[in-house]
Amino acid sequence: MVQLGESYYFPDAAKYDSFAQDILHLRTGGVPTASITPGYPIFLSIIYLVFGHNILAVQIIQAVMGGGICLLIYLLARKAFNEKVGVIALSISAIYPTLIFYSGALISEYLFTFLIALALFMILKFYEKPSTTTALLSGGILGFAILTRSVLVFYPLFVVVLIVFLKRGYFVNTLGKLFIMFFATCMVILPWTIRNYKIFHEFIPLSTIGGYVFYVSNHPKADGTAYDAYDTNKDIEESDRETVSMLNEVDLDRYYYKKAFGNIKNDPLLMLRLMPKKFLRFWALYPHTTTLHKIISILSFGLLLPFALFGLIYSIYHNRSSPVFLMFSIILYMTLINSTLFYGSTRFRFPIEPYLIIFASYGLIEFKSKLSRWIGN
Predict the structure, then answer these.
(1) I need a surface site. Which of 59, 139, 273, 352 has the fewest CB within 10 A?
(2) Which pTM value belongs to this model?
């Protein structure tokens, strides 16, 4: 597979790489930190253990993982609709530029996307036949996904509500298994939480970056993106600068949360005004990048989106299967999270693009069918 990106194209790639090497050599790299979740660094450290500090090995393995994503797209599409939709979705995903591009970058989104797709597939298996095995696998994979990107932390509640809604009158029989699923998720996360408590003597379930991200996402000068993400301290009052410079990462996390909620308290409509901007950035046709990448994005995602919207709406009204609602739930969840609490970014949209491909494939078939009937009449 040809990949279009570079391993250090994104600024956080070096941080993941460094953390992975620290894990591999059982060192702290200086001051122990919880500023990032460990899922992706652990993934990298396993590769480094086998192949050495070899970025090409990571890219090749992520390319193979991309094949796994394509296979899961096919399986989910076939479950939700039929074989024809599955084949079309598989064909699109195999040449989809974003899937190719991210396979070469040292960022958590690729692993995160794979884990979400695998979790949805296992949750669907659980829905069809609730068992202790499918509950443990579903919950465990969700736990690993949350450790990879903590933005998914509230999604298990979405899953419970969805299954209760779909099961309606006879969901009581699955409650015990749902508890097992939730328990498995917590058990995967628990070792990291214990590690954080031993180091910081504070309850830190996942990371200490949430306050900062929440602050830059809900700032009076924010524009729906990562507002001045590398120079937010200029907005800190001069009297607070010395205090801030002396805070550890836990206290700094609290500081940024306090500042963010202060912004919202001073301007109750702030979040409401920012929501459309965040939404538009999350669903933008192209990222803030080179002209070539913009053109590629418009010719891929831009062409995909109308058919995806048509397929999504049409399938909700005419094909109300559990896979349809399951895929819609992750699209809705990620959109809400990045349109309300945090800032929007096309990079954050990537984990839900596999399901847009599926809905677009279905929408394309239905649109062609309706067009043929219209022309025939």
Answers:
(1) 273
(2) 0.90
